[in-house]
Design goal:
73% of the residues lie in helices and 0% in strands. Helix 8 (112-124) runs antiparallel to helix 9. The radius of gyration is 18 Å and the shape is elongated. By secondary structure, it is mainly α.
Length: 196
C-alpha cells in the first residue's frame, strides 16, 4: 500500500518543481480528474489554491472524497481535510479551517504536520494557549520539530512572552541553523529581549 502511494508520488514529482501556473496549465487539460493519481490531484489542488483559484481548489480536492483509495487510505485520508483546511484558511474561514485541521489530526496524529496546521489556524484565531497545547503534544512525535518550535515561538510572541519565545526559536535553530523563518524571528525577538 505505502509502496504504491510512494510510486504514484514519485511519478508526480516531475510536476513538483514546476511553478504553480505551469502545474495548473498542465492539469487543467485533463477533463476527468480520475485520470490523475492521488498525488497529482493534491499537487493540482494546491497549485490552484496558490494562484488564487480557491473554489476550483476546493472542487478538485473534494473530488478525492468520491474516489476509492482504500489501498493507501492511511496516506491519503488525513490529507483531504488538511488540504481543504488550507484552502479555507486562505479564504479567511478560520473556524472551518480549524474544524478540518482537527479532523486531519484525528485521522493522523503520527505526523507533526497535522499538529502544526491546526496550531497555526488556532494562532490566527487568537487561541494562543490552545495552539501551544497542540504544539506541545507534537514535540513527542518524530518530524518537523524545528517548525513546531518556530510555531511555539510565534504563539509566545503573540502572548508577549518574549524571552520564552526567544528560547523556543533558539531550539528551532539548534535543529536547523539555516532555517530562514526562525533566523528572522530570532532577530526580531532579540531586539525586544535586549530591551527588557
Amino acid at each position: 500500500m505505502a509502496a504504491k502511494f510512494a510510486k504514484d508520488a514519485k511519478r508526480s514529482n516531475s510536476f513538483i518543481d514546476w511553478s504553480s501556473s505551469k502545474q495548473v496549465h498542465h492539469f487543467d487539460q485533463y477533463e476527468d480528474l480520475n485520470e490523475l493519481t492521488f498525488p497529482q490531484v493534491f499537487v493540482y489542488g494546491d497549485a490552484l489554491r496558490d494562484i488564487g483559484r480557491k473554489k476550483d481548489a476546493l472542487r478538485v480536492i473534494e473530488s478525492l472524497k468520491e474516489k476509492d483509495f482504500e489501498e493507501y487510505a492511511d496516506q491519503v485520508a488525513y490529507r483531504i481535510p488538511m488540504y481543504l483546511g488550507t484552502v479555507y484558511k486562505d479564504m479567511g474561514d478560520l473556524p472551518q479551517a480549524v474544524s478540518l485541521f482537527r479532523e486531519a489530526l484525528e485521522l493522523n496524529s503520527r505526523t507533526t504536520v497535522t499538529y502544526i496546521y491546526l496550531a497555526s489556524a488556532l494562532h490566527e484565531c487568537g487561541e494562543y494557549q490552545e495552539s501551544l497545547e497542540v504544539l506541545d503534544r507534537a514535540l513527542s512525535i518524530k518530524g518537523d520539530t524545528d517548525e513546531v518550535y518556530l510555531n511555539m515561538a510565534l504563539n509566545l510572541r503573540s502572548m508577549k512572552c518574549y524571552q520564552e519565545a526567544y528560547e523556543a526559536v533558539q531550539k528551532a535553530l539548534e535543529i536547523d541553523p539555516e532555517y530562514k523563518s526562525a533566523n528572522i524571528l530570532r532577530d526580531d525577538l532579540s531586539e525586544v529581549v535586549e530591551m527588557t
